Amino acid sequence: MSYLPIQQLLKTAPIGTTVTVKGWVRTKRESKNAVFIALNDGSTINNIQVVSEAGQLPEETLKLITTGSCLAITGQLVESQGAGQAVEVKISSVTIYGTADPEKYPLQPKRHSLEFLREIAHLRPRTNTFSAILRIRHALAFAVHQYFNDNGFYYLNTPIITASDAEGAGEMFRVTTLNATKPPLTEDGKVDYSQDFFGRETNLTVSGQLEGELGAMALGKIYTFGPTFRAENSNTTRHLAEFWMIEPEMAFFELEDNMNLAEDFLKTIIRYALQHCADDLAFLDNRLKEEEKTKKKEEQSELGLLEKLQFVISNDFVRLTYTEAIDILINSKPAKKGQFQYEVGWGVDLQSEHERYLVEKHFKKPVILTNYPREIKAFYMKQDTESAVGARGEVFGPTVRAMDVLFPGIGEIIGGSQREDDLDKLTARMHEVGIEPEALWWYLDTRRFGSAPHAGFGLGFERLVLFVTGMGNIRDVIPFPRAPKTAEF
Ligand code: ATP
Ligand code: MG
Ligand code: MG
Ligand code: MG
Fold first, then answer.
1. ∠ Cα 456 462 465 (to 5°)
2. In whole angstroms, what is the distance from residue 144 CA to residue 264 CA?
3. How far is 446 from 451, CA to CA, in rounded Å?
4. How far is the CA of 171 from the centre of ligand 4 (A)?
């Protein structure tokens, strides 16, 4: 029988047939009568057990079969006598593709700490935890494209090198031109990094939104899904310097349509993962349960990973305004006891501690907050006609039709808004925040010619993967994390 990935072999190969399996050795166990090799090829969390009778393989061959070595094994697929697996392969021949010196191979058959694995990010996909995460990440990305395709969206690729800074969403990475073999030099002989991109100042994109709006104003519904860069020099567990963002943008959508889309989108994608990644999710669920046991009782989470995902897809998200949320936060226990690290009041940008309090303690459901103060949001958000009014009749400042979706364990997972479609209001706002309308003349053309109501949002893909896998650090849900202190690759 020809070579099959282990995932397919476990599902479809008939007992009694001769099969070939290829993969990396996870463990080798020798007993009096037999040698047991657990082989994994990355196609599934499940290993295939390979059995060789004692003395069947030459001693020199057996010595080379160590954790991390890569093998091809041919043998008969038989029912397994041992507990833990239904079938196993009775070895008839083995090819060693590559050995792995046990003295040097860093992955041993035990649970390594995530911190240690971050230091060997090039090898960590060979662990159960990371291969599960990467398969789930793949499934989620596939589900994203499928969702938009099913709902009439077009995939639009927006520039990665761009002259616009979108919104001043964060510190940017500057792009310079440099001939590596003959770099331009400054007068004192050092490499001159100040050379611009063909005479223009350019950055790596912080968001594809402004270009995405151009697409929506022609194609109706578009989405981007690409790498995004922010020079976040903070070491949080929620920020990367390079992350992937999903940004749908829809003509003829207002704020409420935008919220409905965001909620339906998130639930559909999570449902897809539950249906298609059952083995990997069950593995991560177990892993998390073991980890929880090591915590103090009061710090243990009430729901397991699978329960949490089920809960999110089967409950309506709570929707309320920023102004209502501030009132709740001001009257909350931590605010009264001064336990929030950052004080809350109308006009402040919410920190993840506030967002998580609303979601995890107050509502115990995902939350969509709307109508944020204009001053803390980007210039392109549509202005509300009336200022916010507080619970006791206080009149606050102007607000915009913004929405942030907040998730348990994460805080902000989506930021979005209805966009300002009125040319005069938009240019006036640009002047106020110091953006030269001339610099974004192409953007303003969509308001000059056939302007239309439209809305969109940005979802950080890694925050979604973080939520679905139940991991705690964003560096652990992207194959090659780019963040301060992760300078490999
Ligand atoms: P935060 O408040 O968490 O810093 P933000 O408000 O700066 O996020 P937006 O500009 O609204 O982020 O970007 C849209 C989405 O992109 C966010 O809701 C979040 O999911 C994601 N995101 C933003 N910055 C990062 C980052 N540095 N790493 C990973 N994801 C990010
Ligand atoms: Mg930010
Ligand atoms: Mg934010
Ligand atoms: Mg935001």
1. 105
2. 12
3. 6
4. 14
Pick the CATH number of 6-110 from 2.30.38.10, 1.20.1560.10, 2.40.50.140, 3.30.70.1050: 2.40.50.140
As a 3-state breakdown, the chain gives helix, strand, coil percent values, each rounded to 5, of 35, 25, 40
* CA-proximal residue: ligand 1, atom 14 (nearest): 458
Q: List the residue whose alpha carbon is closest to atom 9 of ligand 1.
A: 415
Domain ranges of the chain: 6-110, 126-171+206-476
Class of domain 126-171+206-476: alpha beta
**Full pLDDT tens readout for the chain, 489 residues:** 467 899 999 999 999 999 999 999 999 999 999 999 999 999 999 999 999 999 999 999 999 999 999 999 999 999 998 888 899 999 999 999 999 999 999 999 888 999 999 999 999 999 999 999 999 999 999 999 999 999 999 999 999 998 876 565 568 888 887 777 887 788 898 887 777 777 778 899 999 999 999 999 999 999 999 999 998 877 899 999 999 999 999 999 999 999 999 999 999 999 999 999 999 999 999 999 999 999 888 888 888 999 999 999 999 999 999 999 999 999 999 988 989 999 999 999 999 999 999 999 999 999 999 999 999 999 999 999 999 999 999 999 999 999 999 999 999 999 999 999 999 999 999 999 999 999 899 999 999 999 999 999 999 999 999 999 999 999 999 999 997 776 566
Close Cβ partners of 17 (under 8 Å, ≥ 6 residues apart):
1, 76, 77
Q: Report the separation in Å between the CA atom of 203 and the middle of ligand 2, taken as the mean of its atom positions.
A: 17
| Closest atom of ligand 1 to CA, residue 404 | 18
User: Which of 206, 232, 240, 245 to probe ligand 1 with, by most ligand atoms within 8 A of CB?
Assistant: 245
**Distances, alpha carbon 227 to alpha carbons 264, 272, 412, in Å:** 24, 23, 19
Q: Which residue's CA is the nearest one to ligand 1's atom 22?
A: 460
On whether the CB atoms of residues 96 and 71 are closer than 8 A, the answer is yes
Angle (nearest 5°) at CA 116 between 114 and 122: 95
Pocket of ligand 1 (CB under 6 A): 169, 230, 232, 238-240, 243, 245, 412-415, 458-460, 462-463
Cα-to-centroid distance, 461 and ligand 1 (Å): 10
